[in-house]
Design brief:
Oligomer: single chain
Low-confidence stretches: none
Strand order of the largest sheet: 1-2-3-4-5-6-7-8-9-10-11-12
Helix content: 10-25%
InterPro entries: LRR_dom_sf, STM4015-like
Distance between the termini: 11 Å
Shape: globular
CATH class: Alpha Beta
Protein name: Leucine Rich repeats (2 copies)
Number of helices: 9
Order of helices and strands: EEEHHEHEHEEHEHEHEHEHEEE
CATH superfamily: Ribonuclease Inhibitor
CATH topology: Leucine-rich repeat, LRR (right-handed beta-alpha superhelix)
Organism: Aquisphaera giovannonii
Mean pLDDT: 96
């Protein structure tokens, strides 16, 4: 799998590309995506310039959801999101109604995920105390410090390789209303340093008392993650466990099936996996909703087997 399409919906709202000539027609009902395509970037247009035009619209003050797509030369990791983050922070008074931000709605044709240059996004949470949802794509240069935020309900970090420092920042945060935590762990070849041990405070249920969804996705050692989470105390709290997009095999699937805690979830998602056909059928008989679609066979080369996660580079 690669990310080949932009999001069509964000936080329950259809996403519409922002056109300065059309303006902001439905600030409450739509999520507006700002993007600079290749030709616009070559012509000298910038995301901060487009954002400035967006803010001139009288309806900008009523916009509740915003998607930041590709910016100029997004395929060059040296062109980071830092100026965009700074501009959004400076615009917080105007964007007072903003509740949801997606930073980095970029497809593989625009940039591989590992090429997206992110930055320190921590100031956004201070600038927008009423923010309820934040999603970011791209782990290169990404920093999330210790947050103290009373209203954040959903936090998603999509990467091809997640730095443990990002996880430590999140786990040191005070997020009393967080319900949805989604981490794309990725591959060591593309910057992954996080381990199951780093996730300990989450798995032991020491963090985020209102959590209902836990996603540990796109992980190249999904069996180890499955074994660590199978009997973890956090399963007594959450309703949905999402281990999809990784390289899960029979080993990890059997660990999940052997856990009474997993059988009490509302849903288990392992889609994009490498379990055998028999185990795939068996795990769907847990008595809960299970997504075990997108089963893959390992690639074989010189008597070695290779399994792949959904998104790495």
């Amino acid at each position: 799998m690669t990310i080949g399409e932009h999001v069509a919906e964000f936080e329950g709202r259809p996403v519409r590309d922002y056109d300065p000539d059309e303006g902001i027609a439905d600030p409450e009902g739509l999520a507006y995506r700002l993007s600079i395509d290749y030709d616009a970037g070559e012509a000298g247009e910038t995301m901060t310039g487009l954002l400035a035009r967006f803010l001139e619209d009288p309806n900008a003050a009523r916009v509740q959801a915003m998607v930041i797509g590709p910016w100029e030369e997004v395929y060059d990791s040296g062109n980071t999101s830092a100026p965009i983050v700074e501009a959004l922070v400076a615009s917080a008074e105007t964007l007072a109604a903003l509740r949801a931000i997606f930073l980095g709605d970029v497809t593989y044709e625009e940039s591989e995920m590992s090429w997206i240059g992110q930055s320190d996004v921590t100031p956004l949470f201070d600038a927008y105390p009423r923010l309820e949802s934040f999603r970011v794509r791209g782990g290169t240069g990404l920093v999330i410090g210790s947050l103290k935020h009373a209203n954040l309900r959903s936090l998603a970090v999509e990467t091809g390789g997640l730095d443990a420092a990002v996880v430590r920042g999140i786990l040191s945060s005070e997020l009393p209303r967080l319900e949805h935590l989604e981490l794309w762990l990725g591959s060591e070849n593309y910057g992954k340093t996080v381990t199951a041990e780093d996730l300990g405070p989450i798995l032991r249920g020491e963090a985020f008392p209102t959590l209902r969804y836990l996603g540990l996705r796109n992980c190249e050692d999904a069996d180890a993650i499955a074994a660590a989470v199978a009997d973890a105390p956090i399963l007594d709290r959450i309703k949905v466990l999402d281990l999809s997009l990784g390289d899960l095999t029979d080993e990890g699937a059997n660990a999940l099936m052997g856990s009474p805690k997993v059988a009490r979830l509302d849903k288990l998602d392992i889609h994009h996996h490498f379990a055998s056909p028999g185990v795939t059928l068996k795990i769907q008989d847990l008595g809960i909703a299970v997504d075990a679609s997108e089963r893959h066979e390992p690639h074989k080369y010189s008597d070695e087997e290779y399994r792949f996660i959904a998104v790495s580079e």
